[in-house]
Structure formats: structure tokens, C-alpha cells
Design brief:
267 residues; alpha/beta; TIM Barrel; nine-stranded mixed beta sheet; two-stranded antiparallel ribbon; 9 helices; 11 strands; 33% helix; 23% strand
Length: 267
């Protein structure tokens, strides 16, 4: 339990045992890593944040590498998730918050997220999806129809940098961004700033030029690189390549902000 001002935030790994009598036979089931009951950084207001299991990216700075394998985590039904969510609805309503699904990559489990968000909308709960966008667009569409806000992580606009950083192409992500703009879906763009990796001003300028033509971007969040998840890499036996990489300086962060602001983008 952590105290942020007057808000208590509880992030907990899920219990391995869920009573069978609470699980309706036909309820959609998914693999869940953990939940955070009162999050404040993944969308507006106080949010119930669900971390799904499974991710097709292998980001060098990932702080949750324990979410990569979809075979791990715990089985949990949508009905069980909704039962937990409803306990915090008053906090969400008061703060203008809602439910955010992140990961891992939530769109690896589109049926789970679709049904969860559909039931949230029935209850008047705001929904946000934090995604890398690396998923066939047709699979994403069924989830997006029940999503109020997309938190879209664009790791880099430069193809080679993106591939080096994540192991995959950035083309599906950019395609999703264009689609969200075309259908009028609100989005926040998230950009992790890593010294000597994603701080190339030409690449950032190209990204800013791309974003300025998207009609529904409400703001850009620059997320300074940190090494809070390094210990997880070590525990899992993975090679953490960014051990010597420092956090970005204030001067670097400010210079990147100015590039985006030059195109009248809210940062």
C-alpha cells in the first residue's frame, strides 16, 4: 500500500485461487498479471488499472518483463474483474476516473478486453486502453468500439530505432494512430525518452510532424526513462542492456518538449 497525497494506492499480485462458485460458466476468461485499485497515472482521475499478461514486444527498457509470457499470470473472468471494479466506482465517479487496461499488451486478449469494456460502459464507467498498437487492426477494432480513450505508446517514429528497441515493426502502431484519428477516437500519445536511444532530435521531429496531422490527439506524455524494473530482469535471468544508461536530464526533457510544442502539440 502506497500513499500518494490523500490517495491510497494498492497494487497486488492476484491470488492463485478463485472460488469456483463465483465464476459463471460462460464468462470470458483471460490471463491477468496484477491489478492496481486506485491508480492516478494511466488516464484521467482515479482509475482501476488491470495489467494483462502477454506481450509481443521485447522493449529494452520494459519495467514489467514478467508480463511477457501469456502462459503465466492468473486466470480471471470478466465477471470477477467487474465485481472488484464496482467496489471502487464511487472513487472513479467522484474523480472523473474509470478503468484502464494495460499490460503487457491488452490487445493480445481482445475478447477479454472487449467484454470487460462493454460491461463497464453498461455501468457508466470510463474506459481507457494502454497499448503499443502492435496488433492486426481488425482485432483492435472490436475493442476500440467500447473504449473512451486510447493511451498509445509510440516508442519511436524511426523504423530501425523502433525495431532495435522492441524487436518488431512500428507500422501497425502508426496504422492504428491514423485509424483512431479517422474515427474520432480520443488518444494520448506516450513517448519514453531514453538517452542515446530515443533522444534523436530528427526522429522526434518526424514524430511531431506525424502527430500534428492526427485530429484526436489530446496531449503527449513524455515519460523519462528509469530503471525501476531492472531487478525483475535479473530475477528472470534476462540480460538488461541499459544498465549504464542514465535517466534523461531536465535539459533533455525540456528540449524534447520544445520540439513537440513547435507544432502546437500539448505536452
Amino acid at each position: 500500500m502506497m500513499n500518494y497525497g490523500n490517495i491510497l494506492i494498492e497494487k497486488k499480485k492476484l491470488s492463485p485461487i478463485y472460488p469456483t462458485e463465483r465464476r459463471p460458466i460462460m464468462s470470458v476468461t483471460g490471463r491477468i498479471h496484477s491489478i492496481e485499485t486506485c491508480g492516478t497515472v494511466d488516464g484521467p482521475g482515479i482509475r482501476f488499472v488491470i495489467f494483462t499478461q502477454g506481450c509481443p514486444l521485447r522493449c529494452k527498457y520494459c519495467h514489467n518483463p514478467d508480463t511477457w509470457k501469456i502462459s503465466e499470470g492468473k486466470n480471471m473472468t470478466v465477471d470477477e474483474l467487474i465485481q472488484e471494479i464496482e467496489k471502487y466506482k464511487s472513487y472513479m465517479d467522484f474523480s472523473g476516473g474509470g478503468v484502464t487496461v494495460t499490460g503487457g499488451e491488452p490487445l493480445m486478449q481482445p475478447k477479454l478486453v472487449k467484454e470487460l469494456f462493454r460491461q463497464c460502459k453498461e455501468r457508466g464507467i470510463h474506459t481507457a486502453l494502454d497499448t503499443s498498437g502492435y496488433i492486426p487492426l481488425e482485432h483492435a477494432k472490436e475493442v476500440i468500439q467500447y473504449t473512451d480513450l486510447i493511451l498509445l505508446d509510440i516508442k519511436s517514429f524511426d523504423y530501425q530505432t523502433y525495431k532495435e528497441l522492441t524487436g518488431v515493426s512500428n507500422e501497425p502502431t502508426l496504422e492504428l494512430a491514423k485509424y483512431l484519428s479517422d474515427i474520432g477516437k480520443p488518444m494520448w500519445i506516450r513517448y519514453v525518452l531514453v538517452p542515446n536511444l530515443t533522444d534523436n532530435p530528427d526522429h522526434i521531429e518526424a514524430l511531431a510532424q506525424f502527430i500534428k496531422d492526427l485530429k484526436t490527439v489530446e496531449k503527449i506524455e513524455i515519460l523519462p526513462f528509469h530503471k525501476m524494473g531492472e531487478y525483475k530482469w535479473e530475477e528472470l535471468g534476462y540480460n538488461y542492456e541499459l544498465k549504464e544508461t542514465p535517466a534523461p536530464s531536465k535539459e533533455l526533457v525540456d528540449s524534447v518538449k520544445e520540439i513537440f510544442k513547435k507544432y502546437n502539440l500539448k505536452v
